[in-house]
Specification:
Strand content: 5-15%
Number of domains: 1
Radius of gyration: 19 Å
Number of strands: 4
Structural class: alpha+beta
Length: 172
């Protein structure tokens, strides 16, 4: 009697674990395409895997929060918001390019002269965040660096959690 219950419990646990990895595995396919696009400088495929409006909003929010954190005065925060808005809108389009993210990928451990990891390898470095997104980590309990969200069947970059200074300085 105990063996069938144990087998049933193990099967349920495996099924639940498989469900948890499905979004990561699906995301890994699009992240693989994103990595190929940045390696090859393929602007069209890169653009298909980036939600520029979401990325702009996320980066703008981080810049404004950083400005507010460096100046406790709310007038500085208001000034930062006023200045950052147009600058971010123009700046994001200028630096959200394959070569910028190629530099990010290199810092994360991907080298242009090496094969792109396959879907299974990529999925091992994805963490489901519980809000319908996955983030790319460099080690098991590492911090998120790139955030992707499923948008109508395509996982698209919506956030960059790394050092904004390094993102803005492509080759730094």
């Amino acid at each position: 009697m105990r063996l069938p219950r144990l087998v049933s419990a193990v099967l349920v646990a495996l099924a639940l674990a498989a469900c948890a990895t499905v979004p990561r595995f699906e995301a890994a396919g699009d992240i693989h395409a994103f990595l190929v696009a940045i390696r090859d400088g393929d602007q069209h495929t890169f653009d298909d895997h980036v939600d520029r409006s979401a990325l702009k909003a996320q980066i703008k929010s981080r810049l404004i929060a950083g400005q507010a954190g460096s100046h406790g005065d709310s007038s500085w925060q208001a000034l930062g918001a006023l200045i950052a808005g147009p600058l971010v809108d123009v700046g994001v389009d200028a630096f959200v390019q394959p070569d910028t993210f190629r530099a990010v990928a290199i810092r994360l451990g991907y080298a242009p002269d090496k094969p792109i990891p396959n879907r299974l390898q990529i999925s091992a470095f994805l963490r489901a965040t519980g809000d319908g997104t996955v983030c790319v980590v460099t080690k098991k309990d590492g911090e998120c660096s790139l955030v992707f969200k499923d948008e109508a069947g395509t996982w698209r970059l919506i956030g960059y959690e790394g050092d904004l200074g390094k993102l803005l300085h492509r080759h730094g």
